[in-house]
Structures are given as C-alpha cells and as structure tokens.
Amino acid sequence: MMFIYLNGKLVPEEKALVSVFDHGFLYGDGIYETMRAYRGIVFLIDEHIKRLFRSGNLIRLKIPQSEEEIKKSIYRTLKKNNLKDAYIRLSISRGSGEIGLDPELCKEPTFVIITKRFKEYPEELYRKGVTVSIVNTRRNAPEALNPKIKSLNFLNNILAKIEAKEAGTYEAIMLNYRGYLTEGTITNIFFVKRGSIFTPSIEAGILDGITRDLIIRVAERNGKNVKEGLYTPEDLYSADEAFITNTTLEILPVIKIDKNVIGKGIPGSVTKDLHRRYREEVERYLRAK
C-alpha cells in the first residue's frame, strides 16, 4: 500500500483526495518540485527546497512549512513507504476555494508529497541514445510566465510532448519566440562541438535546472569549456554530441534530432565521461550525508 502525505497527514493512496474546487485543479495555480532519493538520501534536497520557496514567492503563495519541516515531511513519507531509491514529487497548490481567479478565495494551500519506488530507465537508452524533435510549440515567453516559477500549469509542455509523440521521438525541444533553443518538456538540452559544451542560457527563457547547474560545475571542474548562450536549431543539428538532463534521467545521450544524425549516431565520449563524473558527484554527496 502506498501512503501519500496530504496536508500534514500520511494517508492511504485511495484516501488521498483533493477537492474539485482546489485551484490547482481548476487553474493550475500552484508549484512543485521533483526529487530523487539514492539509498535513502534525497539528492540536493536543500537546492530543491530553496527553489520551491522561490517559486512560492514569485506567485505570492505562502508555503505552510519551513524548509526544515519540509525535509522532515519528505523523509517521513519515504520511511512510511519503506523506500530508499525513490522518485519524489512535492506539490503545493493555492488550495480549495470559490470559483474565481482571486488567490484570496483560498484560505489554505494544499500540500502533497508523493513518493514512489524509483524504476531505473532502460539501460539501452543510455547505451544507444534517444531521438528528439524540435517542435512547433514555442516556449512561454518570460514576459508572460516567468520560467523561474516551477508551475503546476504544464499545458505548454504537454502540447510539445504531444508533438514529440506524433513524431515518434523521445523528447521535444522547444524554441522561444525569437527562434532560439530553450529546453525540453522536462529536460535541459546540451550539445558538444569540438570538445566544448554548449547549453541555452537562462536569458533564452528556461528554468535554471538544478541538474543543469550541477553538470555545468562538474564539467568546468574537469577542464571542460562550457558556454551558455543563444543557439539556433542549426547549432544543434551540427553538433558532435548532444544530451538531455534532469533530476531522474541524470544525463541521457541524444543521437538524432529531427532527421539529423548527431555525430556518429552513437553516444559520444564527452557525454559518457560527463555522466560517469556526475555519478561520482552523487556518490560524494551520499557519503557526505
């Protein structure tokens, strides 16, 4: 039986119910974070919680627990479900209230933590790589929706994912309104040319991914030249290597983008080396904790 953390209580999955008047359901009004636990330790938990509070501040949502209380709630949920290697989803909505956009209609936020046994991605994906497509759905303009907000409203990403599925590819890469590369539906994109690593900058209109930031630091620490900037689809098509990243995937090689084979059509040496070093970083973190 799975237990869900709901507003301070651990309840069986079938009893973890949220009102149809919850503004997270009605309007996508809320925030979330996704985390991964390795051997019972939540990786980079402080960074994720700090970003959660940043998202809350940006939408004027008061988070009902302190940072330390949230940590305890996460570990309490993991323990109740007897989980060591786990996927963690923490969601906070504006809460239940009358129909209408005014946030003051909601008296208390709805606070949910879902933990599930982590199911490793197929090893074949890392050995052979995946295909992605650059889709027509454009990333929300920062002036319309600040990308620093990790929002429950995911329709922009869902429409892009639909395009990727229709194209038969693993992930969609979105452009911004100016035609520059931004990010995937749940990933950041990197590419390699002549040994240097490139990734769209925050100014392109992307979420500053925690895994993205760590990968940049790990790469630079190991002598790699990392450049953040504004890049076009043609920059990506002509790459020697490419890979996508997020908290659960870590680093996943990309071997084809639209009809363009990347490099030799197999995961490249820079990508594989960086993933190995990322795993070493995880191990160091676990030992330190």
Would you give an account of this structure?
The chain has 289 residues and is α+β, with helices and mostly antiparallel strands. Helix content is 31%, strand content 28%. The protein contains eight helices and 15 strands. Strands 7, 8, 9, 10, 11, 12, 13, 14 and 15 form a nine-stranded mixed beta sheet that branches. A six-stranded antiparallel beta sheet has the order 2-1-6-5-3-4. A hairpin with a 5-residue loop joins strand 8 and strand 9 (181-184). Helix 6 (210-221) packs across helix 8. It is globular. The model has no long low-confidence stretch (mean pLDDT 97).
Shape: globular
How many E strands?
A: 15
Q: Treating each run of at least 4 consecutive H or I residues as one helix, how many helices?
A: 8
Which oligomeric state applies?
single chain
Determine the fraction of residues in helical runs and give it as a percent range: 25-40%
Strand content: 25-35%
Helix- and strand-based class? alpha+beta
Brief overview:
This protein has about 290 residues and is α+β, with helices and mostly antiparallel strands. It has helices at about 25, 45-60, 65-80, 125-130, 155-165, 210-220, 235, 270-289, and strands spanning about 5, 10, 30-40, 40, 85-95, 110-115, 130-135, 170-175, 180-185, 190-195, 195-200, 225-230, 240-245, 250-255, 260.
Question: Features of this protein?
Answer:
about 30% helix, about 290 residues, alpha+beta, six-stranded antiparallel sheet, single chain
